[in-house]
Amino acid sequence: MSAPAITPVFVRLKLSLLRNGLRQSGGRKAAYIASAVFALLFAALQLIGLIALRGQAHAESLIVLAVAVLGLGWAVMPLFFPSGDETLDPTRLVMLPLRPRPLIRALLTASLVGIGPLFTLCLLVGSVVAVARGGAAFAVGVVAVVLALLVCVALARAVAAANVRLLTSRKGRDLAVLSGLVIAIGAQVVNFGAQRIGASGLGELDPVAEVLQWVPPASAIAAVHAVGEGSYGLATAQLALTAGALVALLAVWSRHLTRLMTSPDGSTLATAETAARERSSTGLGRLLPAGRTGTVMERSLRYVWRDPKIKAAWVTSLAIGLIVPVFNAWQGTGSVYFACFAAGMLGIQMYNQFGQDTSAFWIVAMTISSTRDAYVELRARAYALLLITLPYATLVTVVTTAMLGDWRRLPEALGLSFALLGAMLATGAWTSARFPYSIPQEGYKNVAPGQTGLAWISIFGGMIAAAVLCAPVIALTIWLNVSAEGDAWTWLLLPVGAAYGAGLTAVGLRLAAPQTARRLPEILVAVSKG
C-alpha cells in the first residue's frame, strides 16, 4: 500500500495557518489585509512599469539587476522575519514519520502560497514581457519564470533550514530586530544609485548586469533576453545554470533538513567555561569611575550591547549618521554641516532613558531617594552616551570634511555638532523624566499601545526644543560667515560650541533631576506597561 501524498496536506496546513492567524484579532486581520492590498497594488504598478520598459535601451540591465535584488531579498527574508511564516521551522515536524524528499516537495509547494510568491511572480512575468523578443523568447520565458520563482523559494527555505536553530533562539530575535538597519542602509543605497542613474542613464548598469546575468535567479531572465537576440547557446547555459542552482539548493535544504530532524538541539546551551568567563569579565568596570556613576555607566553600556532593541536603535543611528553625510559628500552635493546629522541621530538615544529599562526600572527606582541620587543617575547615563557619541560625531565630521576638502569649516562643523549633542542630552534627560513610555520587549513595536502620543511629544518635542536651544550657536555661525572679517574668527566656534553644549547638558540634568525624583511612581507605572 503506497503512502498518501502529503503535498495537499501541507498546502491545506499553510492555508489553515493563514486563516487562523487572521482570526486572532481584528487588528491583525486589518493589518494583513492592508499589507496584502498594498503589496498587490505595488506589484501591479511594477508589472505595468516593467512592461513600459519594453523596447527601451539598456532596459535588460535594469531588469537583470532588479531580479538579482529580488533573489537577495528572498535569501535574507528568513533571517530578518523568522516569525513571518510558521512553516519555516521544520523542527515542528520532527516527531512525524516523514522522509526528506516528500517533505521537501510538500514544503516547496506550500511555500508558493502567500503574498510574497505572488508578488515575485508578478515581477518575474513583467520582466519577461519587457525583455522577450519573439515567440521563442516568450516560450523560454515561461520556463524562466518557473525556474526563477522556485529558486527564490528554495533559497529562502535553504537559508531558513541552515539557520533555524539561530532563528528560534534569542540571538535570532536580536538579528530580526536589526532588519530596520538593513532597510535604512538599503534605502540610502537605492537613493544614491537612483541619483547616479538619473544623471548618467541606464547604461551605467551594463557592467553590473554583465556579471549578474550569471547569478541565479537573474540568469533565467537573462536567458530570455539572449533568446530574443538569437544567442541560443548563451541562453541554454544560463537556463542550465539556474536549473543547477535549484538542484543544489534543494540538496542543501535536504541535508540540513535531515540533520535538523535527527540531531539534538544544543545551540542555545552555553558551556560552563563560557558562562564562567562571562561572569568573571570585569574589564569594562575597571575603566569606569568608581561608585554609582561607574555602575550606571556600565549598566547602560551593557544594555546597548545585549538588549536587542537598544542595540538595533544604536546600530541604526550609527549607520545612518555616517551614511547621510558621507553619501552626500561622495556625490559632491554635500556640506560639512551634514556631519551634524551624526550628532543628532546619536543624541536621540538620550530620550526615554527609563523606558529602555522596561519593568526592570523598579530596581533602579529603589536606589533613588533624593534629587541628588536622580542627578547622579541621569549624569552617568549621559556619560555613557558621550563615551560613544563624542568620538563618533568627531570622526564623522572629520571624514566628511576630508571628502569635501573643506578643512577651513572643520572647527565650526565640530562646534555645531557638540552644541547640538549637548542640547539633545539636555532635552532628552528632561523628557525622559516628564514623558516616559514603555518599549515592548517582544515584537517589532517600539511603543506600547496607548502611549504613541507620549512618544511623539518626547522625541519630536525634544528635538524641536534642542534645535531652538542651538539657535545662538547657529546664529553666531551665520554671522561669522557673512561678516567681512568673520573668517578669521570661525575657529572660535569649536570651543564656543563645546562649552555651550556642555553647559546645556549640565543645566538639563539639573532641571531633570527633581522631576525624576518627584515623579518616580508615575515613571515606574509608565515604563512597565509593555
From TrEMBL:
Keywords: Membrane, Transmembrane, Transmembrane helix. This is Transporter. It comes from Streptomyces lomondensis. The chain crosses the membrane at residues 30-53, 59-81, 102-130, 136-163, 175-194, 232-253, 312-330, 336-354, 382-404, 416-433, 454-482, 488-509. Coiled coil: none annotated. It comes from the Bacteria.
